[in-house]
Every structure is written in structure tokens, then in C-alpha cells.
Automatic annotation (TrEMBL):
GO BP terms, alphabetized: ribosome biogenesis
UniProt entry keywords in alphabetical sequence: GTP-binding, Nucleotide-binding, Repeat, Ribosome biogenesis
Record-listed GTP 2 binding positions: 190-197, 237-241, 302-305
Chain positions recorded as GTP 1 binding sites: 10-17, 57-61, 120-123
Family statement drawn from the similarity comment of this UniProt entry: Belongs to the TRAFAC class TrmE-Era-EngA-EngB-Septin-like GTPase superfamily. EngA (Der) GTPase family.
Quaternary structure and partners: Associates with the 50S ribosomal subunit.
A UniProt-annotated Pfam family: MMR_HSR1
Protein name: GTPase Der
Amino acid sequence: MSLPVVAIIGRPNVGKSTLFNRLVGKKVALVDDRPGVTRDRREGDANLSGMNFRLVDTAGFEEDDAATLPGRMRAQTQAAVAGADVALFVIDSRAGLVPLDQEIARWLRGTNTPVILIANKAEGRAGDSGVYESFSLGFGEPIPFSAEHGEGLADLFDELMPHLDRIAVEAVVEEDDESPSAPLKMAIVGRPNAGKSTLVNKILGEERMITGPEAGITRDSIAIEWEFEGRAVRLIDTAGLRRKAKVEDKLEKLSAADTAHAIDFAEVVVLLLDATRGLEAQDLRIADQIFEEGRAMVIALNKWDVAEGQSALFNGVRFALDEGFAQVKGVPLLTVSAATGKGLDVLLKVAFETRDAWSKRVPTGELNRWFERALEANPPPAPGGRRIKLRYITQIKSRPPSFVIFGTRVDQLPESYRRYLVNGIRRELGFGAVPVRLTFRAPKNPFAPT
């Protein structure tokens, strides 16, 4: 049963994202004093006193031309309200009504979506005059509210309940994340203007994300539920990642931290490169960040439809990746076009296959048979004439696949031999180019001093 949808709307900087965070129960949306922080629709599951619904945070409603960035943001907001069961119209009670509030109210009255008026920032009676003034908007009695302090939640519940006729009160048992049928959590990351939001829009078949020639349009990491050939996908669009030395703005730092959180949340991360610019040092830094987080990775060369010298470009990027990102050689490298849609089906199929490898568990018997063959083909070295004995291996977890080898004098094992074993695990046990964690443990010496 799908949850009812509630959209939050209002002019910039009235506290919409703070309200969103309050109702979903965690700080998901970026919040800053500057107006216009939210640009795309962000969705989250909210629970208000046992009443469950899908909440949509929208960009601040502005009156700019449709071709401008604020105009495209407004179009996203209008689409969100059209698809909602209820709209929460938020005003700043301390600032009082402004002409843009009146304009939004006129537009909302022309829609078919029920509207609940929230007079935010009303704590301490400082917003009383704004609360009384907002009666004139024509949506009945406003709810005096404080998203910052959580005041007014009971009144909001009373107003919402009659509108939401599909209320799920019982707890929802979530599907096992490691089940093959669980949604694929796929994040799209890369440098600014690589085409991440355009790619998401093309995959979805709708203008879900705001796009344009301006770099850095996306600020929040936006998760979108979708299906590919009957299989659930959770797409995560992220803000562009620039080199740290160039990130000075506070908001951009918040966006970068949000992207890092999205990488940690994802199962498969698609690193999107701009084919017209090739592989740059920042791309390798992002790849290293994905690897360090233990996420499965697919690399996609976007804008392939306008790339010149395609064969030389692809081979050059493949070589540079294998040389500059030696931790995991052979990471899938695909060519796509977010503008035309070419290669996107292959991208999604490879993402599912990569998740399968990342989630794989090897039976202990099969694992140790491989281990014996690996030791026989290339025995551990004997530094100082004393042999290093490796006794057995076990897989302690998946996602990422992690193994422990038990033996003696393992602290003297050279890094080259560890790489030999890791590469063998990837190549011969079907893990491909996913991060593999391998640690060594020695039995505790019962005669060692304590």
C-alpha cells in the first residue's frame, strides 16, 4: 500500500527544510540562513503520532522566468503539489505576509490539492501578528508552529488526519537489505556539471531533477524510488564534488558532506565522468573515496554522443584508471549519454551485477579449497629463514566482502603477498572489481607476558 503524499511549499527561507527534517525525524535536508538552499524535490518517510506519509520538501517558490534557474525550481515545486494529497503552505509569521506569499496563495487556490496553512517561527508569541494576518490568505485558521522547536505538532496532526485516508498506523517490516529483491541503492556522483541530474531525469523518463548549464545546481542528495525491468531501484542524485582546496563556501561544504553520506548509504556508486574533459585527478580522488567506504563502483563516461576520438579516449581513460586507481583494477567502465539515453540500460544491468558480486558469500569449504591452491601455487615467503604459516581463511561479512586469514608471523607478510591473495579472491571466486577487505590474525601466545 503506497503512502499518502504531503508537499511542503512556501517562499524561500520560511523554514520548509527545517519542517521537513522535524517530520522525518532526522536532519536530511540542508538548512542554512540563506534563501534558496533547496533546489530539487527531496522526499522522505514521515511519521506524526503513528500517522505515516511520504513528505516532499520543495524549492522556494519564486516569480522568475521559466527559463531561469529559479523558474525551473518553481516548475519542480508545481509538479510536487500536483502529485500531492495535501500541501503544507508555510509562511514566516515573524516577517508577516509579503507579496510573494499572496502570489503563492492565489496559485494554490487554483489547484485541486487541499492546503493546510502553517505560520512558522511563531514561538514565544513573536509571530502573533503574522498569524492573525495570514487569515487573509483564505485557507482558514493557520497553525501557529515552530519547526525549530517542534511546537504545534499536535495541531498539525489534527489538521492532516481528515485528509489522509490511507493511514498506516502499524509498523512496517522492511525487506532484508541483502535480499536480491531489495531495492538497489545506487548513487550518482562526480564533479560539477558532469550531467548527474540529466542522467537521473533520462533514467526516470521525466524532468524530476533541475538541470541547466550552471554548475552546482544540485545541493542536496536526492533519493528517488523507481523500477527497472520490474526490480526496485533507489536512485540518489548528489551534489558535484570539487577539490577540497576549492571548497570555501559553507553551503558547498555541507553539500559535499551530504554527498559523502550518500556514498556511505549506497550499495553501488556510479562515478560519472564528463567525456569531453576526460579523466581528471579529482575523479581519481572521488574513486578513492568510494573505495575507502567499501562501496561497489561503476564508472560511466557521459556525453559520449559529443565526445571526439572515442576509441582513443576510452582506451586512455581505461589505462589511466588501471594505473591511477590500482587498488581495484578492472572497475566497469561504460559509455553513456544522458542526453540521448544511449547506454543507460547497460549501466543499470551492470549495477545490479556489481551489487550481486559485492553481496556474495563463499561457502567455507570452497573458500579454503581455493586458499590451499593459492598457497601451493605461490607459498608465503620466509623472511630471515623462518616460514610464515597461513592456516585457514574465513569470510566474516559481505557488502563489502571481508575475509580473515589466520596464521603465524602474519605481521611480517609483505604487502605484495596480500595483494596476490586479494587479486586471487576477486578473480577466482567471482568478486570482480569490488572492494575486498582482507585482514590477518595470529593466535594469541599463551606464554606471552600480560
